[in-house]
Here is the input.
Amino acid sequence: MSGEAIGFAAAGVAILCFGSNFVPIKKFETGDGVFFQWILCVTIWMAGLIVNCIRHFPPFQPIAMLGGFLWCTGNMLTVPIIKCIGLSLGMLVWGLTNLLAGWSSGTFGLFGLHEETVAKPVLNYLGVVFCCASLALYLFVKSDVAQETTAALAINTEEGHLLEGDESPRHHVTTTSAVVVVETSWVDRLTTFQKRVVGLVLSVVAGVFYGTNFDPPQYIMDNQVGAHYNEAHQWVPVSKNGLDYVFSHFSGILVTSTIYMLIYCIVKKNKPDVYPQVILPAVASGTLWAIADICWFVANSELSFVVAFPMITTGPGVIASLWGIFAFREFSGRRNFLFLGGAFTVTIVGVLLIALSRMS
Here is the structure.
């Protein structure tokens, strides 16, 4: 297979896995999501270790760990975002910011990266516009699960919790029939206006962190950070293969997640919300996420940011929605299906335009 064929195949696998990675966790309670995320990140690190072994232990790159910190920090922000402005608006803002931050990094050479070019720039720009529009269309789709949750909250049942938010985010809300006392968080003490401002700001920050999490390893490759002459006076360049940075990147994710887990335990006075039944589903979810992100590294190397980012940030929405339609029956009504059909169509057109922009 040619490099481009490998890149598009990797992008396809990334889209499929990102769109499916929360299916294993769908029916399980995760509490506030911190413990779930920590198990997820441990699994991600283990997948990175396997890649490291397969690649014969390339040099560890501490700078690439910064990318893991960015992703994990952005992921932690999704919980207060949902509490402040809700799932739909939060996903729209951080999804658009994620797409634009990653695409702009390559297109304009931001943060010290080299500018990337495609054979047909106009098609690439037009494809990005279509991809942004497809994300906006999802804002008008109302999930039956979300509606049931709103009704349940009105009669003081337990509050549902966010599972996860990533370069391809899907969430699930659950409820129980028991009446409980919900702890007051700092978000609950904000006014409606303050919640909106805080939610929008955090959404933009999370999106930027998601969209730039590949920049540190790409910076190493573009600028040959760490290249040197060996004892035989031979020039030893830095690897241009994205797979050689997976373990360093995933190590940053694990370290950051563990630090946040420890802070969380301290804040909760050593009484964190731990749900043992979520461990195996979290491992399955983390495995799918890791496969998707590893494939994203490959797509970035073979296709460039300007092609890979718009495709992989918008494609998973189609896959996740298909799961919701056929497996979980989350959507009903002619209006919902019209907007979903429109989002699917616009996404496919955008992805095709971006793919064609790569062809000479």
